[in-house]
């Protein structure tokens, strides 16, 4: 039986954890002296793509932490956490490109608010998916494979980004680290 109170508390703590760690990761690459290892998980420039890592890596770490807290108490653990993480990284560029289509410029307060909202929405989605009836085992396997692939893509595109607008630093116009 699901202990909804415990699950809700864990997901609220996770929301705070992801927001705080994600905010810190915005600065770790520069403060590390541009260390490539820090670049794997930190924003290496001001592109939209690099800011997605600020939600993804903390969400992945929180998933690894909550395996020990919730895996045996919820349904669809890996599926729920993967969908929550992908919701976060889909919400951020959706909001950014929607509002900048109207304003023609980036607004710092909206960018910060969209990050916070993305994390809250992603955590809420995973919380709701925990309560679904048990999905087939392959759903969890696909979720793990997709999260792994996304981690690889984030690392590779940090240093070898495609020359597309989502990867372009909004300040310098450059791509990647």
Layout of strands and helices, then pairs:
Elements: H1 4-31, H2 36-41, H3 48-70, H4 77-103, H5 108-130, H6 137-159
Helix pairs in contact: 1-3, 1-5, 3-4, 3-6, 4-5, 4-6
Describe the protein.
- Helices cover 73% and strands 0% of the residues.
- It is built from six helices and no strands.
- The model has no long low-confidence stretch (mean pLDDT 92).
- It starts with a helix and ends in an 18-residue tail after the last helix.
- With 177 residues, the protein is mostly helical.
- 34% of the residues are buried.
- The chain has one domain.
Task: Give a concise summary.
The chain contains six helices and no strands. With 177 residues, it is mainly alpha-helical.
Jot down its keywords.
6 helices, 73% helix, globular, 177 residues, mainly alpha
Task: State the share of residues found in helices, binned by percent.
Answer: over 70%
Shape: globular
Mean of all residue-level pLDDT scores = 92
SS field, number of helical segments = 6
Q: How many strands?
A: 0
Structural class: mainly alpha
The largest β sheet comes out as: none
């Amino acid at each position: 039986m699901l202990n909804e109170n415990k699950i809700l508390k864990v997901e609220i703590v996770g929301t705070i954890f992801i927001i705080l760690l994600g905010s810190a990761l915005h600065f770790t690459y520069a403060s590390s002296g541009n260390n490539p290892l820090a670049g794997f998980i930190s924003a290496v420039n001001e592109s939209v793509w690099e800011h997605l890592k600020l939600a993804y890596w903390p969400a992945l770490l929180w998933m690894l932490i909550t395996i020990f807290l919730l895996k045996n108490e919820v349904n669809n653990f890996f599926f729920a956490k993967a969908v929550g993480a992908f919701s976060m990284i889909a919400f951020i560029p959706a909001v950014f490109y929607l509002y900048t289509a109207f304003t023609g410029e980036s607004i710092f307060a909206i960018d910060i608010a969209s990050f916070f909202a993305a994390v809250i929405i992603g955590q809420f989605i995973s919380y709701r998916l925990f309560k679904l009836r048990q999905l087939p085992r392959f759903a969890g396997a696909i979720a793990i494979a997709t999260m792994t692939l996304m981690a690889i893509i984030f690392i590779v595109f940090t240093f070898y980004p495609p020359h597309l607008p989502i990867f372009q630093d909004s300040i310098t116009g450059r791509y990647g680290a």
